[in-house]
Each structure stands twice: as C-alpha cells, then as structure tokens.
Amino acid sequence: MSTDMTKGNILRHLIRFSVPLILGNLFQLSYNMVDTIVIGRFAGSTALAAVGTCDQVMNLLILGVSGLCIGASVLMGNFYGAGKTEKMLEEMKTMLLIGLLFALTVMAAGIPLTGTIFTLMRVRPEMMDEATVYLRVIFARMPFMCLYNIYSAALRSIGDSKTPIRFLVISCMVNITLDLLLVAVFQLSVLGAAMATVIAQAASALLCIRYVNRNVPLLRVDWRTLRINRSLAGKTLSYGGMTALQQCAQPIGNLIIQSSVNALGVSAAAAFSAVRKIEDIGLLPGRSISTGITSFTVQNSPV
Q: At what angle are helices 142-157 and 163-179 packed, to 10 degrees?
C-alpha cells in the first residue's frame, strides 16, 4: 500500500517506514548467514571459509546494485510526490533496462573471471574449488537480485516499505528449507547452498513483480515497451552512482582485508567470515534509517 509522506506527522512516517527496512535488511543478510551456519555445521571449515570469501564479492555487488536503485527511488519519489506518475513509470522502465543490462554484464564477465578474482584475493588452493563453484552459481542470481532491488526501491518511493519485506521473509524460509535439504540431506555442500540462495532470490523477485502487476497500477510495466530515457538515465546514474560508490567503499576495504586473512589459512578465513556477519547486523539500523529519511525527503522535495 502506498503512503503519501507529503502529509501527516513526520516522525510517525519515519518510524513506520524505517522499521520494516531494518527487518528487511536483516532478512537480506540472512541469505548469507544461513548459508554460513548450515555449511559450517554440515560441510566443514574449508567450505565455510570458501563461502566467507565469496561473501565479500557478493556484498560488493549487492551494495552496488542497491546504491543505483536508491538513485532511481529518489527520482521516482520526486515524481510521486509531485503527482507526475507518467514520469515515474518512465523512470521505472529506464531503471529496469539499466539493471538487467548491468546484471547480464556482471554474469558474463564474472563467471569466467572467478579464478582471477580469487587469485587476487589470495584464496588458498584447498578452498579454491569450492569457492569457485559457489561464486559462479551465485553470479547466476544477478538478474533476480537486480529485479528485486528495483521493484523494492519503486515500492519504497511510493511509501511502501512493508510489502518487499513480506516477500523477503518468504524467500528466507525457502532458503533455509533448501539449505537444510540440499546441504544437510543431499550433501551438496557449497553447490547446494548456492542453489538455495539463487532459488530463494528468484522467489522474492517474482513475488514482487507479481504483486506490483496486480496491485500497483502506477508501477505496472509492459516489458515490451522497455526503453532507456537518456535524460532520466543520466540523472539516475548521477544520483545512484555516487551512492553506489559510497556503499561499496566498505566492501572494497573488506575485500582487501579478506585477501590478507586468506593468506593466514583456512581457519583464519572461516573465523573472519563468522565475525563479519555480526558486524553487518550492527550496521543495519543506521543504513535503514538513512534510507527512510531519504524516501521521506524526496517525496517532499520539488522536482
């Protein structure tokens, strides 16, 4: 359900909007956390270290995509607050095409370059095979990750931060179930964990698209009419590019630290992976509240 944040109590809007974001980001992190817990319990420390190494690359991609989507949500929120719904839909189409092109580019480049990435990160030989399998499968989720983030950003731009969370909860349950089935029962180790993550991410993206098509006419897109509006694309990349760069600064630092930790051996890499999950949880409230403030501000800003 959309919320017009140009009217009413400011604090109430921020609380109602930010709390679901905190929960949503927590469930977003749960994808990797569940993989870590299940793999650590049923596949051993080498597999855990391999997944932990991949987490740093995955976080870089996730935060880069979410940064671009924040840029799109700023524009859509501006248009929604000003009542310019046609421009909002045009921005939605532009971002969808940009996002899908970005996802396909990352897939095409990432899969063959996985070995090179891990060489630069000084991944230990005993971790290399499992890390390579995990990351290559994870690259396959890029289109679904982009679609989920784009539709979530679009819903947030009209004041709805709750609906994407419902679908994240569902996909998290799917991920946990498949992790236990594929890793613990069928003993597929990192391959099973990666497959579970991809399937769960696809579920959240498809549920978002289905919900918007049925319930939010303002954001309903005819995929045959997708095109890039150059003016809107420039503004999206201008806003989102800086946000993506800011959000990627920490993951880039973590990649450098991870490469140093990898050189210390499997046990050190596994321990670092586990501790990083706790740190990510600690950063959640600040990020979520800042996103809530952004969404409120853009609806109340002139176009």
A: 150
Q: Are 179 and 196 in contact (CB under 8 A)?
A: yes
Closest CA to 174 of 201, 142, 151: 201
**Distance of alpha carbon 34 from alpha carbon 201, whole angstroms:** 14
Classify residue 94 as exposed, middle or buried by CB count within 10 Å of its CB (0-12, 13-18, 19+): buried
- Residue partners of 250: CB distance under 8 A and separation at least 6: 63
DSSP class of residue 219? Answer: G
The answer to whether the beta carbons of residues 61 and 145 sit under 8 Å apart is: yes
pLDDT digits (tens, 9 = 90+) for 152-199: 989 988 888 889 888 988 988 898 899 999 999 999 999 999 999 899
pTM value surpassing 0.85: yes
Work out the number of other CB atoms within 10 angstroms of the CB of residue 75.
Answer: 25
d(CA 249, CA 294): 20
Q: Which two tokens stand for residue 209?
A: 């698209």
Q: Six-digit token pair at 170?
A: 């569902």
